[in-house]
Write a structure and sequence with these properties.
The protein is α+β, with helices and mostly antiparallel strands and about 300 residues long. The protein has five helices and 15 strands.
């Protein structure tokens, strides 16, 4: 059974997030461009109280909204550049205090028939015949085997999350953003984006709409952390007719709740990637480092971590 994270009996409400991403080139490049999706929207799940985003050095900037509804900004440097720094300071109130707030019978509702009239908000997130990641036989066979003992679409997804959390190992460097779901299943190792990718692909084999969400997660008191996080977090959302969208975090074996801050969404990770960049410079290499902290805060946004 998927666990719901709580700290004692007090649900986390206010979170202060800081992100610093620094990119350095081995020698100056003649042109560079980055696109960054670090603009969380307010919703029924979260209230964005304050957001400051800055990029250095100064650049030509334009704002856009992509096909998945994410606000993103494009920064370009048409002249010599040896690196850039992106800073994000976010103060947010998370509101998803109980992801199980729905009728108990809804968890036992079966997977809808093939001709079910899905609402428009699920368009683009359902199984596509021409997307190879949606049609990997090994993933479908695994999903059906793991979920066979339980009834109901919601409980089947819970079973998959629990299996990934228990049977897969967190390990960096074995996969990348292009690793397909079947390979993640074979390796049984990866990071949050890999496990979420596998869950999305598996959910779609049932005919359920599913999408990738990028964002941040509160990992507990600062005194218990090893330091700042080297990257953000990612999880999957699955749509159920009698419930709506629900977030599942297979890395941690929980449903997305007040510990999670959503920033962007998409069909796969690439659609919601926080930062995508390119540059012109023969033989140039780049080094990128990210530091992220997510702390509990008071109502003014001041960290109250010990």
């Amino acid at each position: 059974m998927v666990r719901h994270f709580a700290e004692g009996s007090v649900w986390i409400v206010h979170l202060a997030v800081t992100q610093r991403t620094r990119c350095r080139y081995s020698r100056p490049v003649q042109f560079a461009r980055i696109e960054y999706r670090v603009f969380p929207a307010g919703s029924a799940e979260q209230n964005v109280i304050r957001l400051n985003v800055a990029i250095e050095p100064d650049s030509e900037r334009s704002d856009f909204t992509d096909a998945w509804g994410n606000l993103y900004r494009k920064a370009e440097w048409p002249e010599s550049l040896d690196g850039w720094t992106l800073s994000v300071d976010l103060f947010v109130q998370t509101l998803m205090d109980n992801p199980f707030a729905f009728a108990a019978a809804a968890a036992d509702a079966p997977v809808p028939d093939r001709d079910f009239p899905w609402p428009p908000e699920t368009a683009g997130y359902r199984r596509w015949e021409y997307d190879p990641w949606d049609n990997e036989p090994a993933v479908e066979a695994w999903a059906r085997e793991i979920s066979a003992p339980v009834r109901g679409a919601f409980k089947k997804i819970q079973a998959l999350v629990d299996a990934i959390h228990r049977q897969f190992k967190f390990c960096k460097g074995m996969t990348d953003v292009k690793t397909p779901p079947a390979e993640i299943l074979r390796l049984k190792v990866g990071v949050c984006q890999d496990f979420s990718t596998l869950l999305i692909a598996a959910a779609r084999t049932f005919g359920l709409p599913a999408r990738y969400v990028s964002g941040y997660i509160y990992e507990g008191p600062k005194s218990n952390r090893a330091g700042s996080a080297p990257s953000g977090h990612g999880w999957a959302e699955v749509y159920f007719p009698d419930i709506g969208w629900r977030g599942f975090d297979p890395l941690n074996g929980i449903l997305a709740c007040q510990t999670h801050v959503r920033v962007a969404q998409g069909r796969w990770y690439a659609d919601a990637a926080p930062i995508v960049g390119r540059f012109i410079g023969a033989g140039v290499t780049q080094t990128t480092e990210t530091e992220i902290t997510v702390d509990k805060a008071d109502a003014s946004g001041r960290s109250i971590e010990p």
